[in-house]
Design a protein that fits this description.
This protein has a single domain, classed as Rossmann fold, CATH 3.40.50.300. Helix content is 20%, strand content 27%. It is built from 3 helices and 7 strands; from the N terminus they run E-H-E-H-E-E-H-E-E-E. Strand 3 and strand 4 form a beta hairpin. It is globular, with a radius of gyration of 15 Å. The chain starts with a strand and ends in a 7-residue tail after the last strand.
Length: 153
């Protein structure tokens, strides 16, 4: 399998949400989506769109203080992690992290770079970046991950 890279230019929150929604429509159980980007770049907006793409109707917010939130009711459960406040990756054991990573849903991890050493090698990395020169609402979304080819879930 080879890695692929997709770059998407978003001109606002609705475009970011729609991009994530379409990405989620192709998601499979066991997928790990790692979100990185500065504060305010749109990681939670991406998570909201991703949940919509899975068919989850519950309101999605960033679980900064609880570390993890489970959303069910869609075609796959979404395990939404926000590890911004995690000081050491070993703290993730308390959340049952391995059970979710190898579970029957999709893991979406905000601030994933903070726990890089415990993430599985087979994951999709989504980086969201601002560029003030291109406007306040502009975001560059870069997606890197292992290509599935023709395989379906």
């Amino acid at each position: 399998m080879k890695d692929k890279e997709i770059v998407f230019d978003s001109l606002g929150m609705n475009m970011t949400r729609e991009f994530a929604r379409k990405m989620a429509e192709k998601a499979c159980a066991g997928d790990v989506i790692c979100l990185t980007g500065d504060l305010g770049t749109g990681k939670t907006v991406f998570a909201q769109g991703f949940a919509e793409g899975l068919g989850i109707t519950e309101y999605v917010n960033s679980p900064t203080f609880t570390i993890m939130q489970v959303y069910e009711g869609g075609r796959l459960p979404m395990y939404h992690f926000d590890v911004y406040r995690v000081e050491d990756p070993s703290e993730m054991e308390e959340t049952g992290f391995d059970d979710y990573i190898f579970g029957d849903g999709v893991c979406l991890i905000e601030w994933a770079e903070l726990i890089n050493e415990i993430l599985p090698g087979n994951r999709t990395e989504v980086t969201i970046e601002k560029d003030p020169v291109k406007g306040f609402d502009y975001r560059k979304i870069t997606v890197k991950g292992a290509e599935r080819g023709e395989a379906k879930c």
